[in-house]
Amino acid sequence: MRHILCALCLLLACTGPALAHKLKLFVTSEGGQVSGSLYFAGGGKAGQLDGHVLDAAGQVVAQLRTGDDGSFSFTPPDGAAYRIRFESADGHMAEAGIGAAPTVIPPTITSTAPDLDAALASQLRPLREQIDALENRTRLSDIIGGIGIIFGLFGCYAWIAARRKERT
After folding, report:
1. According to the 3-state scheme, what is the secondary structure of 9-61?
2. 4-18 confidence digits (pLDDT tens)
3. Which residues form the signal peptide (predicted)?
4. What pTM value is reported for the model?
5. Which CATH class is domain 23-101+130-137?
6. Per-domain residue ranges of the chain
């Protein structure tokens, strides 16, 4: 009996967080503007939530508020690294970091081509949002895997119970 209780305690200690309402944050920096969106793991947008922009020391630099669609944007005061943190009323929190802006080196040759970095950033943002949204959906394989774990745990319990009956 002690072994079962120890195994049960170990199993309960190794559980991960529930992801039913997990708050997710997508942030990107284009030019001098930082923008992003806040949403729940199932894909629902988290609108009208307050957030903070924190510097490296953890001090609040700016206040943010998402729109009805969960989007937000702000202009960072300087090129330092920041952490963006949102917290919902029910205690869920999402945090993401934005690195320091690269130093600008003056070009020696002028170019008439459009800014390649800005063009790439505007094209890659929708793709990054789609990939992030797809990674956070619950798939059929996740559900079947969860059911398999339940059956496996029940099988272990039945095996232990059968061995206990053999001993008596």
Report:
1. HHHHHCCCCCCCCCEEEEEEEECCEEEEEEEECCCCECCCCEEEEECCCCCEE
2. 777 777 776 776 655
3. 1-20
4. 0.53
5. mainly beta
6. 23-101+130-137, 139-168
